[in-house]
Design goal:
Distance between the termini: 82 Å
Number of strands: 9
Strand content: 25-35%
Number of helices: 7
Largest sheet: 4 strands, antiparallel
């Protein structure tokens, strides 16, 4: 009875499954009902739904406190500082690479840490290539586009099975210490 129950498995619509036969990669299966060889095949399921990560805080939908401002500060090309926040949409596109390249303990947490480190590195480099005025305005969409491509390129080199379909800059602000002066300059320009 156990053998007949262990010969069928179901993959949910938001999952893919990696089938290991005698511990070696055999196949990747899509959502639906599937057969496996009992006691020989092992099925590992991976969520392929899209996840959101708000950075530099690290968690989706996190609320940033004023004292966390230092986490967002980056040096611009004209040696000013800007508070930069962005959101990454990510998902698993190659379940086998995701399972075998990331540590087994908590893959999703490791993936978030990897995305945080890679995207911070890329954003620091790109923001440092432009002046504060360009980062806050004219070049913002260019930086966003370049950042998504650079993050994806690094993830592809790691062969970790993760795709970044979207990276969006959320807020770019001057540091709180100079914000009043920045607002006065903007008001004078508008007058």
């Amino acid at each position: 009875a156990y053998v007949s129950l262990d010969s069928v498995y179901t993959v949910a619509p938001d999952e893919q499954a990696v089938v290991l036969r005698f511990g070696k990669l055999n196949s990747t299966t899509m959502p639906g009902l599937h057969l496996k060889i009992p006691l020989v095949d092992r099925v590992l399921k991976v969520s392929i739904e899209e996840h959101s990560l708000r950075l530099p805080g690290g968690a989706a939908d996190n609320i940033r406190a004023a004292n966390d401002e230092n986490d967002t500060l980056m040096l611009t090309g004209d040696l000013n500082t800007a508070g930069v926040e962005w959101t990454i949409q990510w998902k698993v596109v190659d379940p086998a690479d995701y399972l075998f390249r990331l540590p087994e303990d908590d893959r999703d947490e490791f993936a978030r840490q990897l995305l945080t480190t890679v995207s911070r590195t890329v954003m620091n480099r790109l923001v440092g290539d432009y002046s504060f005025d360009e980062v806050i305005g004219a070049k913002r969409s260019d930086i966003t586009h370049e950042a998504r491509e650079a993050v994806q390129k690094i993830l592809d080199e790691y062969k970790c099975g993760i795709s970044v379909p979207s990276l969006q800059m959320q807020r770019v602000t001057p540091p709180s210490q100079v914000r009043p002066a920045f607002d006065r300059v903007n008001a004078a320009i508008q007058e």
